[in-house]
Specification:
By secondary structure, this protein is mostly helical. It contains nine helices and no strands.
Length: 174
């Protein structure tokens, strides 16, 4: 049996077949969680926001217009995270807390990974966001362009510049 595409499944969900949302959830909830966790450094918040993203998928299913599902759901995830940070600005203004949380959660033997996470957390959130989506979640430039309302060329340039900044920060820390 041929595996249904995300887009076909979501089209069916949009028409009211909510049982198919389980397939989409199984395929994507870890990607969404990992993105939110790498952006926030807070596991509980990331779990809550992941649930919120899928709640919004159900709530706004009729707004899905047959585009790339991954672009649509990551747009929801970004917006949920941004809304949370706007509402709770004072709670999340200190990047040192994020760095500490990421470092605490890593295996002490994996020093390189911890240093990379620390360097990543020192980037501006827009640079960190594009790197996490592209490198960790393997979202292609054209999909990122759709998510970020940009062009693939501009996104490719942004990723390249963000990687250079990350490399500089990382090399300064070793």
């Amino acid at each position: 049996m041929k595996t249904e595409t995300d887009e076909r499944l979501m089209a069916q969900v949009a028409l009211g077949n909510l049982d198919l949302l389980k397939v989409l959830f199984d395929r994507h909830h870890l990607h969404i969680f990992n993105f939110l966790y790498k952006m926030s450094g807070d596991k509980m918040l990331s779990e809550d926001l992941t649930q919120d993203v899928f709640y919004k998928v159900i709530k706004y299913r009729s707004s899905y217009k047959n585009g790339k599902f991954v672009s649509w759901i990551f747009t929801i995830a970004r917006n949920s995270l941004n809304t949370h940070f706007r509402k709770n600005k004072e709670m999340h203004s200190d990047l040192e807390a994020v760095q500490y949380q990421l470092a605490e959660d890593q295996n002490e033997n994996d020093e390189d990974y911890t240093q990379l996470q620390r360097a990543l957390s020192k980037l501006e959130s827009s640079d960190r966001e594009v790197l996490i989506m592209h490198r960790f979640n393997e979202i292609k430039y054209n999909e990122l362009a759709e998510i970020m309302d940009s062009t693939p060329g501009a996104i490719k340039t942004k990723v390249s510049r963000a990687l250079k900044k990350l490399k500089t920060i990382y090399l300064e820390s070793i």
